[in-house]
Design brief:
Largest sheet: 7 strands, parallel
Strand content: 15-25%
CATH superfamily of the largest domain: NAD(P)-binding Rossmann-like Domain
Strand order of the largest sheet: 3-2-1-4-5-7-13
Number of domains: 2
Helix content: 25-40%
């Protein structure tokens, strides 16, 4: 479908997914109005302005998600609004103000502006599998998660999954507002988004991809801490910038978690017991943080950005991931507008697999990465489950193979000097 002569809006235009939406829209001939938080930082916009067709058909505007009416003038005259702007991070000291309120109120404000514009035919909202798959329902190879599934806000809150809670509540608020105001709304619910970057800086999603490739793993700090934790402080001169606290508890079965108050740089001077991987072998990295509660209880705490590639091992083979290529996600947004029969929600997951599969693919593609072998502990892997592709394929999506996505991700990170090997 040609977009020639049609005007659309993309909120959060400089983001990882949004940048690809802008690119594909320009390639199809659309005139694009993009919003950013600030026009004062050209580094966050130059990659958009350099896109083919941007000089003639891309305009950038400053808009504030938390300011009612901020999007009024931007969406005026548009036929479709692609709302991608929302905070994306897992760790928050104040989830209500930093995650939940901006996601919910921001969505309501954008939809409020859209409700004032008769020319807008459809709003396409970037949601997430975080608002689909997180509840107490069992998962096994016979289970098929589809668009009828909804994450449970109570489950998310009790599990301290505040990002997932924010996406769940924001999507709920969007559907409620759309019904009450006669807005034609479609949501795109992608899984773990990988693929090449257009922007010159790492955001949360692309940094997660880099961390997987570089074997840099995270442990996140829950808002609630136990008072019975046994703590042993390591001398500060063993590290640069900060000290480390080891935490032992019976539930950890002699394994240790690490707490670091601030990011630090590894000098190779860690005590022997910290380097020993079997202390850390079963701690999962950030995208499976919530699974640790069931195994270890509410005691795992954090570090913001480990720089030591050998500090933590690659995590358990059993963790399950829902991969999708960023280019597929961007195209799905556009097709959700262009296909007149599109409606409701669209789960976007190309591959559901154990975490070891992605590492094995990377190892075969790039032996120079020297990814570590994962320890065998005799425990069964987390069972795989299925995510329906039926609606996404009906939209016209042909999912990119995981091997292609991972290869293109690595090449993009190398090209932008985020990865050297």
């Amino acid at each position: 479908m040609s977009g020639a002569g049609k005007v659309v809006c993309v909120t959060g235009a400089s983001g990882y997914i949004a940048s690809w939406i802008v690119k594909l829209l320009l390639d199809r001939g659309y005139t694009v109005k993009g919003t950013v938080r600030s026009l004062s930082d050209p580094k966050k916009m130059d990659h958009l302005l350099s896109l083919h067709g941007a000089k003639e058909r891309l305009q950038l505007f400053e808009a504030n998600l938390m300011e009612e009416g901020s999007f009024d003038s931007v969406v005026d005259g548009c036929e479709c609004v692609f709302h991608t702007a929302s905070p994306v991070f897992l760790e928050s000291s104040n989830p209500q103000d930093e995650l939940i309120k901006p996601a919910v109120k921001g969505t309501q404000n954008v939809l409020g502006s859209c409700a004032k514009v008769p020319s807008i035919k459809r709003v396409v909202l970037t949601s997430s599998m975080a608002s689909v798959a997180f509840n107490s329902r069992p998962r096994n190879p016979d289970v098929v998660i589809d668009e009828t599934w909804f994450s449970d806000p109570v489950y998310c809150e009790e599990s301290k999954l505040f990002y997932h809670l924010s996406k769940t509540l924001a999507e709920d608020a969007a559907w409620k507002f759309a019904r009450e105001n006669g807005i034609d709304l479609v949501t795109i619910n992608p899984g773990f988004v990988f693929g090449p970057l257009l922007q010159p800086t790492l955001n949360f999603t692309s940094e997660g991809a880099l961390n997987l490739i570089k074997n840099v793993w995270f442990i996140w700090q829950p808002s609630r801490k136990r008072t019975t934790i046994l703590q042993k402080e390591i001398k500060k001169d063993k590290l640069t910038r900060d000290s480390v606290i080891l935490i032992g508890q019976d539930k950890l079965r002699s394994r240790l978690a690490i707490r670091v108050a601030q990011p630090f740089l590894w000098t190779g001077c860690f005590p022997e017991e910290v380097i020993a991987n079997d202390y850390l072998a079963k701690l999962k990295f950030m995208f499976t943080y919530w699974k640790n509660y069931a195994a270890f209880g509410d005691i795992l705490i954090i570090c913001n950005a480990y720089k030591a590639s050998n500090l933590l091992d690659a995590g358990p083979d059993g963790a399950v991931y829902r991969y999708v290529d960023v280019r597929d996600v961007a195209l799905a947004h556009i097709l959700a507008y262009e296909v007149s029969s599109a409606s409701g929600r669209y789960c976007l997951v190309g591959t559901v697999t154990n975490s070891s599969e992605a590492v094995n693919i990377l190892r075969k593609l790039y032996p120079a990465l020297k990814l570590p072998e994962r320890p065998e502990d005799g425990k069964p892997a987390e069972p795989l489950y299925q995510i329906s592709k039926k609606k996404a394929e009906s939209l016209g999506i042909h999912f990119t193979p995981l091997e292609v996505t991972l290869r293109d991700t690595v090449e993009s990170l190398k090209e932008k000097n985020f990865l050297q090997f």
